[in-house]
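Hi F.,

I've been meaning to write this up properly since the lab meeting, where we talked about keeping a consistent format for the predictions we share between groups. The idea is simple: the sequence comes first, exactly as it goes in, then the structure tokens exactly as they come out, then a line or two of notes. No screenshots and no reformatting. I'm using this chain as the first example so we have something concrete to point to.
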Amino acid sequence: MKKSFFLLLLSVVLVSCGSTKSLSKRVMKGYWSLNEITYSEGGEFNVTLFNDASKACFEASTWRFIPNNNTGIYTLSGMDCDSSERHFVFTIDEVDKTSGLYDFLLKPTNEKHKSETNKGFRVKLAHLSETNMQWQQTVMLDGSPFTIYMNFTKINE
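Output, unedited:
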């Protein structure tokens, strides 16, 4: 009896953890606009995001997430910005089982935009709802943590 109860409890825990991850991936699926980028510190900073372009090019960029194969595409916006499609893959690592939010690794796959070291970029999924999403990327600036906040709005599925 105790063994059956333990197996049942273990099954419920495993199913509930998996369903949170699928729910987050379902919500993330579709088209998003990266409409605002802010920093943890005040002032003007010359930041190149994802070894690709400036904040000005990323604001108003369009992103598509295809969670069933962990891929996506983004297109930059702005007059002096290269607007070719950038393809990427993302690997999700669960962080908080209560909220279901994740850290993930975003890795460019275009030859044109892939870095020489073929590295990815760690980003924290800080907020996710049906209409809004926020990423946080923490980097070091003069030996101290510096956080970049990327705020998205859902366009459609």
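Notes:
The radius of gyration is 18 Å.
The chain has a mean pLDDT of 80.

If this format works for you, I'll send the rest the same way.

G.
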